[in-house]
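Progress note, sequence design subtask.
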C-alpha cells in the first residue's frame, strides 16, 4: 500500500465513495479511499435501497435524481 497520496478520502460510505468517484471522473489520479471496516458498513448500510421520487425542495429533488 502506498504511504503518500495526493488525496486521501477517509470513510467508505456513500459520501466518501462519491467524493472518490467524482475526483476520478474529473481525471484526478493518485487518490485513495481509506475505510476502517468494510465499504458501506456505516450508516450507508441502513439506507441501501432507499429511494425518493418526490421532494418539495427542488434542489434536494435534483440531488436525489442525480444519485438515483
Ligand atoms: C437506519 C437509517 C436509515 C436511513 N435511511 C435513509 C434513507 O432511506 N434514505 C437516505 O437518503 N438516507 C437514509 N439514511 C441516512 C444515510 O444513511 C446517511 O446520511 C448516509 O449514509 C451517510 O453517509 P456517510 O458516507 O456520510 O457516512 P457512513 O455511511 O456512516 O460512512 C462513514 C464511513 O467512514 C468510516 N470511518 C469512520 N471513521 C473512520 C476513520 N477514522 N478511518 C477510516 N474510516 C472511518 C466508517 O467505517 C464508515 O464506513 C439512513 C440512516 C440510518 C441510520
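Output:
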Amino acid at each position: 500500500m502506498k504511504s503518500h497520496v495526493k488525496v486521501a478520502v477517509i470513510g467508505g460510505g456513500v459520501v466518501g465513495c462519491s467524493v472518490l468517484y467524482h475526483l476520478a471522473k474529473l481525471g484526478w489520479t493518485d487518490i485513495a479511499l481509506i475505510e476502517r471496516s468494510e465499504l458501506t458498513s456505516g450508516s450507508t448500510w441502513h439506507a441501501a435501497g432507499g429511494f425518493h421520487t418526490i421532494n418539495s425542495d427542488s434542489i434536494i429533488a435534483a440531488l436525489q435524481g442525480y444519485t438515483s
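The radius of gyration is 14 Å. Work on this subtask will continue into the next period as scheduled.
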